[in-house]
Amino acid sequence: MALKYPMKTFYNHLHAQHQGKFEMFRGALVPCYEVPARADHVLAELQRRKLGTVQPPLPFDDAALTAIHSPRYLNFLATAWDQWVALDPANAERDILPSVWATRTFRTDIEPDNFSAKVGLYSSDAGTPFTSGTWVAARAGADCALSATQAVLAGDRAAFALSRPPGHHAGMDFFGGYCFLNNAALAAQHLLNQGKAAGIKKVAILDVDYHHGNGTQAIFYDRPDVFYASIHGDPRTEFPFFLGYADEMGAGAGLGANLNIPLPRGTDFARWSAALEHALQAITHFGADALVVSLGVDTFEGDPISGFTLKSADYLAVGQRLAAAGLPTVLVFEGGYAVADVGVNAVNVVEGFL
Ligand code: SS9
Ligand code: ZN
């Protein structure tokens, strides 16, 4: 295959260290949807089509993480597994799942000593197990997002962070929705912090995952330098339920720099691509100097936990349309749970972009 330009993929070689056993669903523990095979299929398809180069991430220091996440949350993630096993050596065979939360009216300024309470303070759902290798995998995944950003800052037209676990549901100080570190937010902030010489003053994040990226939106909600646009299942019926409505347009200095396009279950590519057009026009109007794409492919018709009906061939058109925006672009892999199809679908976006 002849390439107009090579695209670097930064592949998280440690992703399989994060391998949850079960997530809570309707009172039962069911096998996790967010499995290592997802990233393996994307890697295999990239290599099969010989699309650019695949490399491990470069190591970044913690300052890149504290640009987005709170120090006490990062400290919790780094030490959670050891705390868990210290409670009972038998815990080494079990994943951590939260069971109590600091919801409305509770205090969140105090980190309790009790481990279960800490897990609840730093999480938003019981669908996101924390395992022995979660921190190592998530940390390397952040390095992938930062490495892809670095490649774009160095002049590459685009780069792809191929990692799991995903990131867009992770907030400044909580995990949830299968996410721990917000890779897209880290990329956007790194573009701003390191992109002055390259003339990068404003960044847009376009989230095309089926689910609203509540973490990303919240991180940048009052910021005028990061535009967040998302096309997603209507939160009245779809996870994450409590954010992602059309009337959320940003706050304070960030008013006008947030665009949510919720769509009903059953939405097809014709309607979805009209929303993509709308989002990209808003990004152009905002005047972004660079683009981060939260690239979930759980909009696929065969996705087991989602409700849109995009077909595999549609993702080629998505990639083409993203490239036509003409911006330096960091593609960050997010969701997509039709495991056998996720490779073809994600790589179709990459191939369409090229
Ligand atoms: C499925 C529950 C869905 C969260 C989905 C997070 C998607 C991340 N039984 N739980 S892209
Ligand atoms: Zn998703």
Which labels suit this protein?
single chain, 354 residues, alpha/beta, eight-stranded parallel β-sheet, two-stranded antiparallel ribbon, 10 strands, 35% helix, globular, binds 5-[(3-aminopropyl)amino]pentane-1-thiol, binds zinc ion
Beta strand %: 5-15%
Ligand names: 5-[(3-aminopropyl)amino]pentane-1-thiol, zinc ion
Strand order of the largest sheet: 4-1-5-10-9-6-7-8
How many DSSP helices? 10
Structure description:
The protein has helices at 37-49, 63-66, 71-87, 115-121, 134-153, 183-194, 214-220, 269-286, 314-324, 339-353; strands spanning 8-11, 22-25, 28-31, 53-55, 158-162, 203-207, 226-233, 258-263, 290-295, 329-333. With 354 residues, the chain is an alpha/beta fold. The strands form two sheets. It has an eight-stranded parallel β-sheet, with helices on both faces. It has a two-stranded antiparallel sheet with strand order 2-3. A hairpin with a 2-residue loop joins strand 2 (22-25) and strand 3 (28-31). The longest helix is centred in the middle third of the chain and has 20 residues, at 134-153. The radius of gyration is 19 Å and the shape is globular. Zinc ion (ZN) binds next to loops. Zinc ion (ZN) is lined by residues 209-211, 296, 298, 334-335.
